[in-house]
Amino acid sequence: MVRRAASLILLASLAQSLPAQPASPPAPQPAVYQIGDRAAQDIIAPMPLMVVDQAATEALRAQAAQQVPPFFCYYPIKTEEAVSEFKTALNDTRYGFLEAKLADKTQGADTNGPLSGPAVAAFRAQNTGFPADEKLLALWAANQGDDLQDSLVAALRAAMARHIRAVNLPAALKLNDRARLLTITDPLEIPKLDTAEQQAAEISAHTDLMTLEQARADLANSFPAKEAAAGRFLAGFLRVNTEPDMALTRASRDRETAALLSADSYDAGQVIIKHGQIVTARIKAALDQLNDKLQTAARAEQLQQQAVMSQTQAVIADERNRWLFGTLLAVVVAGGLTIRWQIKRWNRRRRSRALAVRVAGAEETGVVISCPTCAEHIVVPLGMEDGAGLPGCDHATHEEWRRRAIAAEQRAQQATAIVRTGMLSHLAKYLSTELVRKLVSQRGDLINVQRQAAERVEELAGRLENLELPGRESELFYQQRIADLEQQLEESNELNRSLIKLKIATARRQLDEAKSHAGLN
After folding, report:
1. For the purposes of burial, counting CB atoms within 10 Å of the CB of 44, is it exposed (0-12), middle (13-18) or buried (19 or more)?
2. Against a cut of 0.70, is the pTM above it?
3. In which domain, by residue range, is 145 found?
């Protein structure tokens, strides 16, 4: 307890001394300047600074981003779409011609050949050029032409196997010599950047990529002059199958250029601006950053001091609570011991003045009192007749001693009531604590157990008293009881001697009653 109190006093003095300590002097704040102002004094950086020029940084990153190859996605499914569209157009033309030929044949208007009827002539007027030319129509009229169709499909597939891009690309995408190509089989599943960088194949942006116009011109020029119409017709089905992926391209370029900065570095002690020098945008940025760092450092130091103060106060409060709890516990224990001592003291006084006893084996109940004349402890049987002499004392009658005993009992009860009344307020405080309530509960349990045991003993004593021993056995029992009491009388002290005398007298009277009862029987 002494050690805890000493630590509490030490912490309290420390807490009181902390606010009184002077705060560390604030770092010098640079004057607030605007662009174009002249510095009124030299400003030196107290700490390392790196001032980033955002505009210059963005320009540097944009320039470096052009060196990062863009991503292009090649879609093979575009080839099947072009072939399917070509076959549909060719078959529609063929079915239109066969319907016109059937109409001429039905009317008997094709006597001069399959292409001489009016229906066929009207069909050719509506569909000029390939594939409605005379050569292919003649093949269709003879149920031929599949080989020509297959050769055209093969030529279209070969043209679509090349990487065809649109002529106009996004403004943010500037091609250089290199590009990265991804083959996408499912247009709904575009890989993430990390996967795309692993799967992409690096190609030449000028030789491996061609525009749609260039691809159509190359396909048309690949046919001979007499089949130029077929080449032009087939080139019309070519489409873009390679498109730039701007999302992957931006993500890749941002990653590659994120570390690029355009900044001015200042070491600790280096002059930021000299006296009379004009404040530029770069110098103002350095002064703003310095001001922000100084304010941040001041706030951090203030928060640290507050944290130390809060921690110290918490420790002080904890120690104070422990000390108060220990003191309260000591007061409760001392109060409980005091109350217990007072109760025992009054009980001893009351018992020393008048103690009611019950003689085992007898019907009477007596009171133990102290004779004021001879200081001898006397047992006053409550069942004695008035005026009868007391055993062991001849100083007063039974009635006088009874009055004295009753008066002493009343005084003891009054004193006990006074003590209980005076301690009621203190007991109310002590009993409010959990510890005292538990002790009171345990004391109540002990009192109940003691009361049950007393009732059990009284019950057994009653059974023994009411037991009637037949004839000779009762007489032998009372004689043995008198002998035992006389032996106890020789070995007992002064207080027990009076009790034993009373027991002997009672036993003799019961022996006489037993003898008379046996004689009557």
Report:
1. middle
2. no
3. 63-257
